[in-house]
Design goal:
This protein is mostly helical. The protein has 3 helices and no strands. The radius of gyration is 14 Å and the shape is elongated. This is DUF1825 domain-containing protein.
Amino acid sequence: METMMDRYRIFMKRFELSEDFMAQMTVEQMKTQLGQFGVTPQQMFDQMHLTLERMKAELEKQT
C-alpha cells in the first residue's frame, strides 16, 4: 500500500509538471473534485499517509 501511494504521488507530480494538455486537464479535474469537498491535493496525500500509518499501527497491535 505504501509503495502504491508513493507511486501515485510521483504519477500526479509528473502530470503537474507536464506540458501535455490532457495531463493538465487531469490535474485540474482532480483539484476541482477535491475542492468540492474542501480538500487540496496535498491534504488528500497527507490524509492517505495518516490512514496508512494508523493501519500499520493496528497491525502491530494485533501481533
